[in-house]
Amino acid sequence: MAASSEVMPASSESIVLRLFEVDAVKFGDFTLKSGITSPVYFDLRVMISFPQLMTDVANLLWDKISASKFISLCGVPYTALPIATLMSASHNIPMLIRRKEAKGYGTKKLIEGIFRTGDVCLIVEDVVSSGSSVLDTAEALKSVGVLVTDAVVLLDREQGGRQKLQQEGITLHSVFTMTDILTILKGAGKLDSQTVDKVACYIEHNRFQPDQTVCSLKPKVYDYEERAKLCTNSVTRRLLEIMGEKRSNLALSADVTTSQELLQLVDKVGPHVCIVKTHIDILEDFTQETVTKLSQLAARHNFLIFEDRKFADIGNTVLHQFGGGMYNISSWAHIINAHGVPGPGVVHGLREVGASKGCGCLLIAEMSSAGNLATGDYTTATVSMAEANKDFVIGFISVNNLTSDPTFIHMTPGVQLTAGQDSLGQQYLTPSEVITNRGSDIIIVGRGIYEAKDPVEAAKQFQLAGYDAFVARLTEFMTS
Ligand SMILES: O=c1ccn([C@@H]2O[C@H](COP(=O)(O)O)[C@@H](O)[C@H]2O)c(=O)[nH]1
To answer: Which of 56, 119, 150, 308 is catalytic?
Structure first.
């Protein structure tokens, strides 16, 4: 017997394990084109370097369909093209190629290959998320009179693509679902339960609606009460409950310089806010009585206190800065924040003091000031640091939504009713830009309130603008 003809058909399980080994399936933190962080990434392009694996994949796809129905097949460019070629050559079924753009010269064809009006063509694809790539190819085929009733895919990410395609009259046949991949890899000891849960949670919260425009993935928008129930961190849960009860996503930045001004301002504006943010070290007359009274106001008006100390030192130092000193911040602040620049030690040091006191920490992933350096890879690394410390890190100071994880809160400073800039580089966005368009959760407003002629009226205006902007985002999600 010739050795070359002795290749055994590969089992589906072994193919998943080989895809994992060659890094075609990866787990970690990946920023997608949409800006969303995904805990799983498929890069099936690497298969062209592993011809046997690619042949086995092509055979699995072929076994999934009843081929007699199709006159031709067409791979979605580019990853599925070699797979479709193998299926075509092995089973003697003609192939079509869809050009991504029609040629600007010669025949100007969108579809290459020989076809007749009414031919039924099978679409071949590697991964389906929203279904948009399959639909694009189907549209191109239909535009030349070729019918598409079915598509076969190696992996259905279970994010709504199947339903979307069905709605357009295309039945999806998938070799694997995301659940199959997780089950096989976990069973083989390649994934731990935590990773499996993280990916399952991500998929659950990032499904396309069947009738949603499928160009970009939008994370689900929850109302505050619904979202509070997803949170295990007591500070996040309490904050979301307050936001729901008070219909407020407004944080007052009370940057006044005497205790009297601070307490008077907070007593008046407290009913309209979910958070009062302090810079305790700018008070000229700080005493422990100031924070005792501030805590009483927090209880009376139902808000949380956020000390904007921006810790940024090694773990041992921040532990003392937070847990002691003249301000003794950990004895009265519900929320603090830190820069990621010293590395995870800063979070660990703060957690040693704050976790047992029920305090939560925000990481400063982006800033509002012009020319700031908290961008790009720095922001991405800060998000990873938060994800690795989810028991204590409750979210971000940022000017954009940075993760689809609904248990992280995004708070955005630099908010006024009209966009602009101050003379020292502070940049302002409007509540609707921050909440509706950029997907942040909380607007932080300082001078827009405490420098207004009537701070209470100003606070009411910001409360309304912020909440309306949230309702607009929720409505847009529900109706899109
Ligand atoms: O990137 C950042 C981080 C923090 N802040 C703080 O927010 C307030 C903004 O005050 P406004 O008067 O509304 O400008 C202030 O306490 C900053 O320290 C920020 O602005 N940008």
So the answer is: 308
ipTM surpasses 0.95: yes
- Which atom of ligand 1 is nearest the CA belonging to 374? 1
Q: How far apart, in whole angstroms, are the C-alpha atoms of residue 201 and residue 198?
A: 5
Residue 9 vs residues 13, 23, 57, 417: alpha-carbon distances, Å: 12, 22, 10, 65
Residue of 310, 390, 460, 468 marked active site: 310
Active site residue 313: yes
Neighbours of 95 (CB within 10 A): 19
Rounded Cα distance, 265 and 51, in Å: 70
For the entire predicted model, the pTM comes to 0.62
302: number of CA atoms within 13 Å, CB side? Answer: 14
| Overall average pLDDT of the 124-134 stretch | 92
Tell me how far the alpha carbon of residue 149 lies from the centroid of ligand 1, in angstroms: 55
- How many angstroms is it from 349 CA to the middle of ligand 1? 24
Least confident of 165-179, 216-230, 251-265, 394-408: 216-230
Question: Cα-flanking dihedrals φ and ψ of residue 83, to 5°?
Answer: -65, -45
The pLDDT score that the predictor gives to residue 216 is: 41
Q: What structural domains and CATH numbers belong to the chain?
A: 12-205 (3.40.50.2020), 224-479 (3.20.20.70)
* Tokens matching residue 168: 């357009």
